[in-house]
Specification:
Pathway: Cell wall biogenesis; peptidoglycan biosynthesis
Mean pLDDT: 86
Shape: globular
Order of helices and strands: HHHHHEEEHHHHHHHHHHH
Largest sheet: 3 strands, antiparallel
Function: Peptidoglycan polymerase that is essential for cell wall elongation.
Membrane topology: Multi-pass membrane protein
Structural class: mainly alpha
Distance between the termini: 13 Å
Radius of gyration: 21 Å
Number of helices: 16
Low-confidence stretches: 1-9, 378-382
Keywords: Cell inner membrane, Cell membrane, Cell shape, Cell wall biogenesis/degradation, Glycosyltransferase, Membrane, Peptidoglycan synthesis, Transferase, Transmembrane, Transmembrane helix
GO cellular component, one term: plasma membrane
Strand order of the largest sheet: 1-2-3
Strand content: under 5%
């Protein structure tokens, strides 16, 4: 039976951990989320329902989850990393069997009281599993071919299931985030070169297997004007909204593209466009600056951590968060093809919000236990 006393409270009291908790970081997340609440309030034409109030409640619940997760000893998270990954994998697999469709993709599970998107949970679980695995290897062991089979399977299996939903954006995020942990663990450059060559060679095969709408997204990215009322409509309206906002915007709740319903999915994927239309270049730059502060702090936590598990976990969370922000903001600007990647803490979505706050709780646990030394090697887990 698992003795929790081995992992909690032995080295630090709860009161000490609460003192170590970076409340300023939580405040920063609250400020970013508040910008999302304001936009969701505006989307609903000055009403807290159906989006803003629910998102506020989710953030409060997420903040509670973040604090609880942060107070748990980092060694416990390392020990249960594989079971958490297994649970996430079962949920992702269940989507293909009993999941229901929304916006053309089968990505959600209906659990009665809540609707769950397991791929969002997998984004965190895959980082935990890889961080634990690579913690158990020395630098020389990381690049041995036999030691790469398990971490590759950790990535490939859920990516294959997510692609089948289909959710190409999330699949790319899972792959890139996992690849970064391979790099951070010290994998030799020759494997990345071989991987790059393999990706280039696989492009014709992947292209042939893409859905028609996915190919259209690529064509639209290259030339949005080819179908302005069809496939190119979303990105063209997004660019119009971005440009019409100017330097200071049209004013809160005064965005014409959004409120006249020219802008699609303005509460989720295109919420950054709405923000820029109403608050202008200054508003958009402010949000990106706040995101930059989150990233700077996250990377600093990774650099301060004295154990490999915490260092890799913090780095994985930081990189995953960066790609969330980068892909969504670049997508609505027309710099990347349109994919279903929400803007973290701002876009409407329950599972995305709660899983991200859980991830930030893990990041804070790494920070609180940054001076904890955990022995390397396979026996370190036990």
């Amino acid at each position: 039976m698992l003795d929790l006393r081995r992992f909690t409270g032995r080295d630090m009291r709860i009161s000490d951990k609460l003192m170590e908790f970076n409340w300023g970081f939580l405040l920063l997340l609250a400020v970013i989320s508040s910008m999302g609440f304001a936009m969701l309030y505006s989307v609903a034409d000055g009403s807290f329902s159906p989006w803003a109030l629910k998102q506020m409640v989710r953030f409060v619940v997420g903040a509670g989850i973040m604090i609880v997760v942060a107070l748990v000893d980092l060694r416990l998270w390392m020990r249960i990393a594989y079971p958490l990954y297994a649970i996430a994998l079962v949920l992702v697999t269940a989507v293909d069997i009993v999941g229901f469709k929304g916006m053309g993709a089968q990505r959600w599970l209906n659990l009665g009281i809540i609707q769950l998107q397991p791929s969002e949970i997998m984004k965190v679980a895959i980082l935990l599993a890889l961080a634990r695995y690579f913690h158990g290897l020395t630098l020389d062991e990381v690049s041995r071919l036999k030691n790469l089979i398990i971490p590759l399977l950790i990535i490939v299996v859920p990516v294959g299931l997510v692609v089948k939903q289909p959710d190409l954006g999330t699949a790319i995020l899972l792959t890139v985030s996992g690849g970064v942990l391979f790099f951070a663990a010290g994998l030799a450059w020759r494997y990345f070169i071989l991987g790059g060559v393999a990706v280039l060679a696989a492009i014709p095969v992947v292209w042939d297997r893409l859905h028609d709408y996915q190919r259209n997204r690529v064509f639209t990215f290259l030339d949005p004007e080819r179908d302005p009322l069809g496939a190119g409509y979303h990105i063209l309206q997004s660019k119009i909204a971005l440009g019409s906002g100017g330097v200071f915007g049209k004013g809160f709740m005064a965005g014409t593209q959004a409120h006249l319903n020219f802008l699609p999915e303005k509460q989720t994927d295109f919420i950054f466009t709405m923000l820029c239309e109403e608050l202008g270049f200054v508003g958009g730059l402010t949000l990106l600056a706040l995101y930059a502060l989150v990233l700077i702090y996250s990377f600093s936590v990774a650099m301060q951590c004295r154990n490999q598990f915490g260092r890799l976990l913090a780095l994985g969370i930081s990189v995953s968060f960066f790609f969330y922000v980068f892909i969504n903001s670049a997508m609505v600007m027309g710099l990347l093809p349109v994919v279903g990647v929400p803007l973290p803490l701002v876009s409407y979505g329950g599972t995305a919000m709660l899983s991200l706050m859980f991830a930030f709780g893990l990041l804070m646990s790494v920070y609180i236990h940054r001076n904890l030394e955990i022995a390397r090697g396979n026996n370190a887990f036990w």
